[in-house]
Amino acid sequence: MPSLEGKVALITGAGGRKGIGRATALKLAALGADIALTDVTRPQSDLPPQERGDKWQGIESVAEEVRAHGRKCQTVACDLSVNAEVRDLIDTVIGEFGKIDIMINNARAIIGKDRVPVWELDEAEWQHFLDINLTAVYLTIKYTVPHMMERGQGGRIINTASDASKRGKATSSAYSATKFGLLGLTQCAALDLAPHQITVNSVCPGSVNTDRMSYQEQIAADRQGVPLETYRAQLVEQLGQVNPLGRIVESEDVANLIAFLSSDEAEMITGQAYNVNGGTLFH
How far from chain centre, in Å, is Cα 242? Predict the structure, then answer.
């Protein structure tokens, strides 16, 4: 894997203990990048079981791991649904590091409350998914690229999409619509920014063993009368059994692709949406 020495990467949605954000931060740090991390501060009820209590501190815990690689790391709490907070996030990171070379839009809305037929979908829930999954990405691009263009040294923007950005499913209107939209934003931004040598790409994971909070999984576990951890372990096993490559995707699998797209070796790749799913979807 090529070196990212001297690069600065900002990663959103980076506080999950088994999440893509954390795996990406550690991968990029191991390759030499300095890291800025952001996530929203969540109540305990919105955290997966292994993150509740005081042992895991979200982006602060990830930052300690990044620093253990000998890299600088800044943490900024940010509600990505608030325009002013996104603008301040970018300004804060620029103020600390002087630049952002790599912008990784990894945050997503918590799924579950949206998993109803479209006619039953609450408008506030629809809007929340738009705010986090799509508008927030537009805003980070809007506020980051002027700095990239001013420096004149190009840049990398990588968006975490989903297989739901290529294939709709029942009771997934809000999630899938925003992820489809994210691919459109990726392609348009790629063409807008190509003259400035700023590439924009998306990664599209299938089911990933992130242990991110899912209201849908909590409801299913409650119905079965088992702890959420037990339900998830069963789900991970089932998904691995039906995957052509024999296991569920891990966060590190996605981080490996993000790291490549962040590198100089990917300078001729832009506007693309790459699957990371073990062969469960070809599109």
Answer: 25
- Tell me: the pLDDT tens digits for 247-266? 999 999 999 999 999 999 99
In the chain, the domains with their CATH numbers are 8-275 (3.40.50.720)
Burial-class residue 55 by CB neighbours within 10 Å (0-12, 13-18, 19+): exposed
**What pLDDT is attached to residue 213?**
57
Give the CB-side neighbour count of residue 191, counting CA atoms within 13 A: 5
| Catalytic residue status for 179 | yes
Q: Cβ distance 18 to 209 under 8 Å?
A: yes
Catalytic residue among 175, 215, 231, 274: 175
Tokens 């945050």: give the residue.
107
Quick one: pLDDT at residue 277? 96
Query: How far apart (Å, rounded) are the C-alpha atoms in residues 208 and 188?
Result: 27
Examine the residue annotation and report whether 55 is marked as an active-site residue of this protein.
no
Please, are residues 204 and 277 in contact by the beta-carbon 8 Å criterion? yes
The per-residue pLDDT for range 98-135, each reduced to its tens digit, is 999 999 999 999 887 898 999 999 999 999 999 999 99
Which of 17-31, 176-190, 213-227, 247-261 comes out lowest in average pLDDT? 213-227
Catalytic residue, from 7, 27, 99, 179: name it: 179
Both tokens of 138, joined, read 């537009």
Phi and psi, residue 267, nearest 5°: -65, -20
